[in-house]
Design a protein that fits this description.
Layout lengths: L1 H24 L2 H22 L8 H16 L15
Helix pairs in contact: 1-2
Amino acid sequence: MGFCYNVAKSLGALAITGVGVLSAHTGLATAIGACCFASYAVSITALLALPETKGINLAELDARAKLRDEVIDSPSSVSVTGHPQKLT
């Protein structure tokens, strides 16, 4: 959550700066509208790109991911050739 929050906070700060810079060339209303349009476009793109989680037990999914990471990080998961073994 920290990474997403900080990226969004940074983009919000850039939007304020963008409105100021853009309003010097166009009107203030046009600059605000352009930044709002860009924000909605980013939001809709993220909405369409993210996977659906309806009906998925997220706690179980998180536990499986942690287990997978532990198996991958352990020295026993590396084969003789030095490549990670295929997890099943």
